[in-house]
Amino acid sequence: MNSILKSVSRLTALKTLLLPAKTLVSMSQSQAHLLTTRNLWYMSTLQSQKLSAVHSNLCGCGCGGIKQGVHTKGNSEKELVEFLTEEILAERKAQKVTTIPTEIEGFNARLNGAEVTLTKKTDTETIKISFNVNHSVDTDAEPEIHENMDKPDIGELKSKPAFKVDLIRADTTVSVLCSFVPPSEQDDSYNDAFGIDELSIYNGEWNENVYSVTGEVLDSVSYLYDLILNYLEEKGITNEFVEKLSNYSTAYEHSAYIGLLEGLSKFISVK
Length: 271
Prior knowledge:
The chain is of the alpha+beta class. The chain has helices at residues 2-12, 29-32, 34-49, 76-94, 215-220, 224-234, 239-269, and strands at residues 103-104, 107-112, 115-121, 126-132, 137-139, 157-159, 163-169, 172-180, 194-203, 212-214.
């Protein structure tokens, strides 16, 4: 278990990533530790199922001599492919959604790598929601980790990406950047599943000169923050819709993760 904690510490140092200001807001604290969460979950699985035997105390990599066969010289490709094969089978078995829908609550979905765009057109405007599934996986609850635990209780992995809502009329766009509210930050008197991080309005294409205001400033103006949330709700961006967005993102992110494993296995297998 000490090796898990050491690996988690290394992963934590890599959490801060630069994301385009146009498409994403800064990651929330809960999103920022997703790398730790996912890797901890898989590493705990490895600990309990695959790497429990002790092979040598002479290994100098810091693994504590628990990684049986991992450092066998000349067999790294074979071992990696074998591991990926097992992991892919396990992930496919755990996969809840095998076919990603092309529509969600009247929004047409367009998938482009890690980018997801949901679009709905009305007589007066176009509503476009965009988000990126990279680094979006989090658990529903903070894991409890103790050194004497064989397998930490991580909880359900869910994708909760920051998302942008664009309300487009003719050449004018109102853009609202939103993110999920962590359970630890939710107020008992409010049940909002998401909050506003930034608001802007511009003509034509967005550029770095477009003025924007933060959610904190909006919240400081009496009722303005809540009125904008109510406005989004009338457009269909409700707590229920955002929960479905999270489920959709979770299914797509999981599918993309399996695809990454399969691509890596194929790459390594080709001579």
